[in-house]
Design a protein that fits this description.
Radius of gyration: 17 Å
Helix content: 10-25%
CATH topology: NE0471 N-terminal domain-like
Largest sheet: 3 strands, antiparallel
Distance between the termini: 42 Å
Strand order of the largest sheet: 1-2-3
Number of domains: 1
Structural class: alpha+beta
CATH class: Alpha Beta
Order of helices and strands: EEEHHEEEHH
Number of strands: 6
CATH architecture: 2-Layer Sandwich
Length: 143
């Protein structure tokens, strides 16, 4: 991941609110928000979530109760969030966190629409729709 764009507003405060399951973030340009851990998890910048190109995104579901176990600095440009479901590969740059903060409501509504269209749920106990279940690996046919 490249460094920051020169005009990226830097965060002035980042606070984890464990009981509320939110990350509070404020930027030097005055933009601020409280982002749910679920929102951050389903919008992880990792390849596991975003894929390796347009159209390869993987819908995340059942993440309503996910927690952030830790937040680790990555240089002077990002943080890595360690989630309770074991996900830990997303590097959240200041650019990306600013985007998530700025576009929070639109992104959240898009996500809820994607869940509904897929017949999936935010609830981790909900049944997984058949078309979203992992497919078993195919045997290579060699013995």
């Amino acid at each position: 991941m490249a460094g920051l764009s020169p005009d990226t507003p830097l965060p002035t405060a980042i606070t984890l609110h464990q009981r509320a399951r939110e990350l509070e973030i404020a930027f030097e340009d005055g933009l601020a928000a409280r982002l749910s851990f679920e929102f951050l998890r389903v919008h992880s910048p990792s390849a596991e979530v975003r894929g390796h190109g347009q159209g390869q995104e993987v819908l995340q579901f059942g993440k309503r109760d996910v927690e952030v176990r830790d937040i680790l600095p990555v240089g002077q440009y990002a943080v890595r969030l360690l989630f309770s479901d074991g996900h830990d590969s997303g590097i959240y740059s200041w650019d990306y966190l600013h985007l998530l903060t700025r576009e929070h409501e639109n992104l959240w509504q898009q996500y809820l629409g994607q869940l509904e269209a897929a017949g999936a749920s935010r609830d981790p106990a909900a049944p997984v729709p058949e078309h979203l279940r992992p497919r078993p690996a195919k045997a290579c046919g060699k013995h």
